[in-house]
Write a structure and sequence with these properties.
The complex is a heterodimer of chains A (about 350) and B (about 350). Chain A has about 350 residues and is an all-alpha fold. In chain A, about 70% of the residues lie in helices and about 5% in strands. Classes of the chains: A mainly alpha (about 350), B alpha/beta (about 350). Chain B: Keywords: Signal, Sugar transport, Transport.
Chain lengths: ~350, ~350
């Protein structure tokens, strides 16, 4: 007897809100089974994993530091994904922004250039990311090439470009030939927000981006044209929205936010250019965007949850010797559970009757 | 439903904290020592050997120490958080075992002046930060000699990781060793741009074999290249640990990193209160670089390798003893001179005969 998924109209808001909660409960159950199989007390493990990091002011800061780039990139990706443009290359735009912004920090190094350096670096970082994002947009508009492939491949181009720079022309001359730039001057690093810890000004910019994006996507004609262009391209064309402009626009915004996240990270927690400046933020942000249902506020929550799984995972490694892979399993389970819960809320399963009945 | 969940979470938090507090009280007299690893402890290479060192510390000091580690920590912004967490968890001595942890280690060390830090393969130190590394190039000179005596095609394959001085000096040492046997020997290099990427390492090995290399050497951390060599019936050298189980017919020998003596010594110094910030660069003589048994080679080659090993240990032979020419044919080290340590540690040029360009140069 075949089964069929049927889309349900008028799903209530309550059910939509409950879906992620349901997914979380499911993940916790799977997690508990996993901990028992690994020979650990699941309650203690959950305490260390999910609750411990929320009780210590230091790890709370770290949670925000880790979630910052995720929510900033994820918010930009929401523009693309709502418009049905699949930018998979935020990681590359992040690197491009970091490289372009860092250029200024390196040429002004040791010159006592003044307080304008950091703001200018941030602007250049956003521009660099936007330009890198516009390449796949151009290729799609001009040649119809798949932006999924081109944006992804440009990640490797950006990473190798960074690699070349820090091993070649931008290498610290006093660094024994090791591949990294000089450490940025004080006027080129993000100000810290607290006396102790690593919380820096970047999080304020990230939150500004979230507020602006919420407004633009929800309350303006631009947001509407993105939404319509994604869900009903023909209707959008009849309404006079230019598909090409939407493509360029969403890639520019998404690239700019990824680039900004990149330069903030380099000018913040890292402090100089190195061959590896991202633990995959650009890719993890895709998960954050999807988990947050492409809504900026949802993405903030999703980024914090993802950050918690990383930091809790490290705490569990340190105090319980749980392997790193447990973190990965958690993240994967959570993602699958949320996607599954989504389907179950929005669709219902119906048995399709055989031919013998009328 | 919501209420039940929040209650469950609250109970979980309470139990978790109580558990943590109890272990904390018990561990008050133990010295807590931590390691930060770039790869998984099961990489059977670099990280595996560091973890063997950690286990040796546990064995040596028993219940006087409590060790912990965090694996798969990416170089970059995450490393600082992990190191800080370890310091906050009460560890008094922290070993950070990859080059990219250098700046994060220094930053955390500044904030935690009472914790001692040890950074492997770096060059920046502080009052409470030491650096340590091994003279792996000594072993690579022997590999070069064995390869030149074993190879029928006259071509050695080399899977390199990143073009940093340690890797460049390894390639040069291997070439100088090989040239001491056969001046016309060739080395083909593939850059994996990774320390640990088994699929890429295996591909690199296959590509090198296809290009005529019949002895494979590697500066990457997994046994994938050894397995590829075993499959294709060529010879190979292991890296960091003895990889004979992965290439019973392929492995000639392996440079084994033996960190145990250093780790035990440093832990003891912290216990005795004599720990000082130092820069340690030990080699074969100190037992930190160990050659795995010489296998799958004729007896005369084995005897030759053993003789070289003895000469390096006694100091009679130094791989970077002149005359050494660079690729352009310029004399860099005069006859009878020895390349100073600082020049080896910042090496960014190839010796004559290597048909490759240092990436990024």
């Amino acid at each position: 007897m075949p089964l069929r998924l049927e889309r349900q109209e008028n799903v209530s808001g309550l059910r939509l809100a409950l879906a992620p909660l349901l997914a979380l409960v499911f993940t916790l159950i799977v997690g508990a089974i996993m901990f028992v199989v690994l020979g650990h007390d699941p309650i203690r493990a959950f305490g260390i994993y999910f609750v411990g990091p929320l009780l210590d002011p230091y790890t709370l800061q770290e949670l925000v530091v880790k979630a910052g780039p995720l929510l900033m990139i994820g918010t930009g990706l929401a523009f693309c994904y709502r418009a049905n443009r699949w930018n998979i290359g935020a990681e590359g735009q992040y690197v491009a922004g970091a490289v372009v912004g860092s250029w200024l920090a390196l040429v002004t190094h040791g010159t006592d250039a003044g307080p304008w350096v950091l703001p200018a670096m941030l602007v250049m970082g956003a521009l660099g990311g936007a330009l890198w994002g516009l390449i796949p947009a151009f290729l799609r508009v001009r040649f119809g090439s798949s932006e999924i492939l081109t944006s992804l491949m440009l990640v490797y181009v950006a990473q190798l470009g960074l690699d070349y720079l820090v091993r070649g022309p931008w290498k610290d001359p006093d660094g024994f030939n090791f591949p990294q730039s000089v450490t940025f001057d004080a006027n080129a690093v993000m100000p810290l927000l607290m006396d102790e810890g690593r919380l820096h000004g970047g999080i304020i910019l990230a939150l500004v981006a979230v507020v602006v994006a919420t407004f633009v996507l929800g309350r303006t004609l631009v947001g509407y044209s993105i939404e319509i262009g994604g869900s009903a391209p023909r209707a959008a064309a009849f309404a006079g929205f230019d598909e090409r402009r939407v493509t360029y626009g969403v890639f520019a915004v998404s690239g700019a936010l990824a680039g900004l996240a990149g330069i903030i990270e380099v000018a913040g927690p890292i402090g100089n250019l190195q061959p590896s400046i991202s633990p995959g933020y650009g890719f993890t942000a895709i998960i954050a965007a999807m988990l947050g249902r492409l809504h900026p506020v949802g993405i903030v929550v999703a980024s914090l949850v993802l950050a918690l799984t990383y930091i809790g995972g490290e705490a569990a490694q340190i105090s319980m010797r749980l392997p790193f892979d447990v973190t990965r399993v958690f993240q994967g389970t959570l993602l699958i559970a949320i996607l599954a819960a989504d389907v179950m809320v929005r669709y219902r399963v119906r048995r399709v009757e055989g031919t013998s009945h009328a | 439903m919501r209420k039940i969940i929040s209650m469950a979470v609250a109970i979980a938090a309470g139990l978790g904290l109580a558990g943590a507090a109890a272990t904390g009280a018990l561990a008050a007299e133990k010295l807590k020592v931590a390691w930060v690893y770039i790869g998984p402890v099961g990489d059977f290479g670099w990280t595996y050997q560091h973890d063997q060192g950690r286990k040796a510390v546990e064995k040596e000091f028993g219940d006087k120490v409590e060790t912990t580690y965090v694996e798969n920590v990416p170089e970059g912004p995450d490393a600082e958080r992990v190191i800080e967490q370890l310091a906050r968890a009460g560890n008094k001595l922290i070993f950070t075992t990859s080059f990219g942890y250098m700046e994060p280690t220094l930053k955390v060390a500044k904030r935690n002046p009472k914790v001692f830090f040890e950074h492997a393969t770096g060059y920046k130190r502080d009052k409470n930060v030491s650096t340590y590394n091994s003279k792996f190039h000594e072993g690579r000179y022997i590999l070069g000699q064995i390869a030149a005596k074993t190879s029928k095609t006259g071509t050695i394959g080399y899977i390199a990781s990143f073009p940093i001085p340690e890797v460049i000096s390894g390639i040069n040492a291997l070439m100088l060793g090989a040239q001491s046997v056969n001046p016309d020997i060739k080395v083909k290099i593939v850059w994996a741009n990774s320390w640990f990427d088994p699929a890429k390492e295996a591909d690199a090995a296959k590509a090198l074999i296809d290009q005529g290399a019949d002895v494979i050497s590697q500066h990457t951390d997994s046994p994938a290249a050894m397995q590829a060599a075993e499959q294709r019936g060529v010879k190979a050298f292991g890296q960091a640990s003895d990889m004979i189980n992965f290439g019973p017919h392929a492995q000639l020998t392996s440079i084994v990193d033996n960190w145990a003596p250093y780790y035990i010594e440093r832990v003891k110094e912290v216990m005795d209160g004599t720990w000082k910030s130092t820069d340690t660069w030990s080699g074969m003589k100190d037992g930190e670089v160990v050659m795995a048994p010489y296998t799958n080679m004729p007896d005369d080659v084995k005897a030759f390798a053993q003789a070289t090993e003895a000469k390096i240990k006694s100091g009679e032979l130094n791989p970077f003893k002149g005359p050494i020419y660079d690729q352009s044919g310029k004399l860099v080290v005069k006859e009878g001179d020895v390349l100073p340590d600082k020049d080896i540690l910042s090496m960014n040029w190839y010796v004559k005969g290597i048909d490759d360009k240092v990436p990024g140069k």
